[in-house]
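Tip: read the tokens left to right.
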């Protein structure tokens, strides 16, 4: 067997939240390119269909589910329905998340805090509980949580600290799941991206350009990342090539956290 064969995902099924745009789209397309069939979950039906069409052109199956997973009841129902109708799933990518607000802690409404914690953390918990829990019963699975270097460091010149808080929790949640489920053949790892020029960061560039430019100047390689840089890492973690890796938080940030 060629070493490259260990990265193939033929016959595997992926469930990914926030899979229609940005880093989620890149990872969905990368895993489909490696052979996976994909169930995409997101809020915008038009972008879901665009990504699904791209996957189908690769000869893979793509299913779209319109859902706002920041709403726990909707997230839970979507996971249960998807598992019944399109499962079982071999790979789960908890990708959805975001900062969304630039509000100092002293001014952040409790309702906003809770909404963003549900977006970044509770959604990952529920998907892992339901989609990942079914993996435990089958004694096989790959869980990939998209955390952030913001779960390790604090970003300069911007508010909305529910983001740093929730992403730090995602990293620790990943470790606990990895420890509990390793004996069941289920791995759990986190990807911690740095600055990538996705749609949200393009928006922040307009709303708070100082935050983006401050961030950019601190990256040793000299610029923000290209979203396509994330695809190969996701394929590795989804494949049997990563059989012996679990509980890791893999930083991909152009060196930002080196200093």
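Filled-in amino acids:
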């Amino acid at each position: 067997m060629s070493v490259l064969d260990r990265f193939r995902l033929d016959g595997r099924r992926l469930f990914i939240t926030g899979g229609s745009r940005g880093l989620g789209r890149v990872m969905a397309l990368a895993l489909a390119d490696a052979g996976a069939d994909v169930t995409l979950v997101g809020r915008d039906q038009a972008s879901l269909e665009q990504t699904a069409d791209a996957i189908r052109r690769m000869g893979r199956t793509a299913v779209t589910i319109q859902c706002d997973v920041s709403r726990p009841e909707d997230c839970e129902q979507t996971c249960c329905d998807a598992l019944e109708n399109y499962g079982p799933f071999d790979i789960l990518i908890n990708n959805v998340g975001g900062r969304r607000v630039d509000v100092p802690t002293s001014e952040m409404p409790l309702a906003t805090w809770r909404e963003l914690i549900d977006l970044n953390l509770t959604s990952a918990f529920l998907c892992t509980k339901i989609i990942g829990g079914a993996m435990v019963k089958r004694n096989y699975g790959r869980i990939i949580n998209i955390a952030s270097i913001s779960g390790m460091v604090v970003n300069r010149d911007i508010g909305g600290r529910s983001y740093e808080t929730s992403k730090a929790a995602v990293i620790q949640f990943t470790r606990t799941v990895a420890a509990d489920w390793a004996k069941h053949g289920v791995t759990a790892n986190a990807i911690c991206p740095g600055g990538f020029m996705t749609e949200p960061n393009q928006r922040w560039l307009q709303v708070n350009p100082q935050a983006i430019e401050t961030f950019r100047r601190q990256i040793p390689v000299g610029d923000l990342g290209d979203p396509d840089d994330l695809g190969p890492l996701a394929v590795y973690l989804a494949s049997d090539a990563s059989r012996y890796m679990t509980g890791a938080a893999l930083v991909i940030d152009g060196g930002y956290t080196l200093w």
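The CA atoms of residues 62 and 247 lie 29 Å apart. The beta strands are 13-17, 37-42, 62-66, 91-94, 141-146, 186-193, 249-252.
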